[in-house]
Predict the structure.
Amino acid sequence: RQTIRMLFGRKKRNPIKIPEKNVSEWKYSVCNYCSTGCSIELGLDDQGKVVTSRGVADADVNRGKLCIKGILEQELFESPGRGTVPLLRDNTDDAWQPSSWDDTLDRCAEKIKSIQQQYGPDSFAVVSTGQLLTEEFYTLGKLVRGCIGTNNYDGNTTLCMASAVSGYKRFFGSDGPPGCYEDFEHTECLMAFGSNLPEQHPIIYWRLKEAREKRHFPMIVIDPRVTMLAQWADIHLPITPGTDVVLLNSMMYVILNEGLEDAAYIEAHTEGIEALRETVSGYDPKTAQKICGIDEDTIRNVARIYAKAGSAMSIWTMGINQSTHGSDGVCNINNLNLITGNIGKPGGTSLSITGQCNAMGTREWSSCSGLPGYRLLENPKHREQVADFWNVDSDFFPEKVGLKQTDIFPAIETGQIKGMWLVATNPLTSMANQGRIRKIMEKLDFLIVQDVYQDVETVEFAHAYLPAAVWAEKQGCHTNTERRVNLTRNALPAYADSKPDFWIFNQMAKRFENSKRMQFPDDTESAFEEMKQLSKAEEGERRTLDISGMSYDLIEAKRGIQWPYRDEKASAGEDKGEPRLYTDGVFQTPTGKAKLICVNFVNNNECPDDEYPFWMNSGRVVEHFHTRTRTGKIGNINKFSPTPYMEMNPDAAAKMGLKAGDYVRAISRRGDAVAMVQLTQRVAPNMVFIPFHYHDCVNRLTLGLLDPYSRQPAFKQCAVKLERVDQAEAAELNKVRRQF
Ligand code: SF4
């Protein structure tokens, strides 16, 4: 023993000591990055300063774990570039002038009204985000729908989740993911479409991995790139970009031809099977393989594995949604799950993994795509319900949804929209075809940017800047991917003279006539009480989005509650929401049955050709979030990939004489982007991949053709050519590109 001690130095051991943080109070919160919905506790010292954070051990979602972004999230509070005071200027060439909140909001309200008076109510657009608290979304919706009265109101969730929403609505009669993370513990087969969980949703991936370590079940990953998830899969299908509809139709061809469908479920709970049979009959695997690039035996094999599993689940993210037929792709995933009876049962589901932390909150309550609580503008009864509740005239509401974000920008280009209010979104980096977006922004008569950061790229085109509080400087709820409503407690006051978005919306509302008749609660908890009342179903209605049994204290105590959670349940002392929707097979369509919808493949992608020989693919990396407005500010995160890079296959690189670390200029029909080459077999020789997070980079190349139903852009499919540039040229190109 003595020898061992001497060898390993245990006698003199000097263990690493984690410095004491002197935490005097822990505040409960939820991570404000991705939609996993991890519970976090923030540690405050006796001066009220946040000094550390930790994952919450008894939270069912993350069970004490956090990914790199969550672990370092408390560094956001004092990160560089934060807005300190409101700013105003007449022209975008002028210097910013600091202003008071009253003067700034007066000026913004006066400009909104004058633009609407001159050009009509819809000439002013509002575009928000998936990053606010749910009560803030609800209040913004109340302000826009009830007071400002423009119908051109949307969220940046159109860039990521709109196809999933559209697919759910078309099938089940309502939005709302039917499954949950616990399904990993029950499923007998998981199929992941265009979803790289370990980088996009690391803690959901950890839940999946843990479930597979306890009980192995087949995992099939469909992705053109050998992603981290694909590396862990039993079967990886490196599909030709944009052909998922063909693969899914062909799988259903096999299932229906071989009698592997769940006939009893189809009969009892769906409609449209005959038309679906006929459609998929044109997609035999022999023909399909030539389009989707997956050989016919593999198509048959995965179709049989999926259909024969006692329960099987599909998950997907942007690989499906960000496509010219994203909504059709979602429909086909739903078709597959319905004909195999995999909806509403443990381990059998069709689960869209949402993008932003509160993309669900905006879908549920912001009124962007209708009215609160998944109500529809097109439904007169819904308009009446909300108008009565808010005390506005129902005629004030439009009778159908206005333009989506991706149609708002072209409407600015054509002069239909003259002013815009952007809330926590950064189109100068996030929208496709950046050259065009820059020119469009220049045409605005008045632009308001409300954001935590004053140095966010879009501020360059703004006339008013409203500094917002970040995350736990506020109090309110998020809803995560599995419909779990969770709470962020207000840990510390807003930075400098920034204000919570909730306060800004309330103050803006006071400047509009209708607000005199309406009630705008002073605090988010009271707004939540309003939402609870609105979430209840009226006589004869079926409403799954019911949060009436929830309260802030109960949500915190239970570390989040999944909706529906009705007040009858709370009164009966049951403290858990419903993990799954449609367990009874009754859907929110007029007949109560889910609609099977036939989709055919239409090839309208921009594909590689002799002139532009590479597929261009884009996506997320684990250390960054969206346009890096936050993660780019945190040194211990940013250091992993501080500059744009491009994944390239070594064989393709060798042909061009390129090696790792060289710079290339990628050129599409829209623009160019400079990135550093990273050699990897993750991409095929005819494909390159650039993370989407960087300003002035991949979205200078993207085409962004829109899905006809969801209006979501195809960020992931376009064609590029490559040119080698040296470091000096790369620097020069980046400098020149910033000038136009
Ligand atoms: Fe936050 Fe998502 Fe990471 Fe969880 S997985 S800590 S929610 S970024």
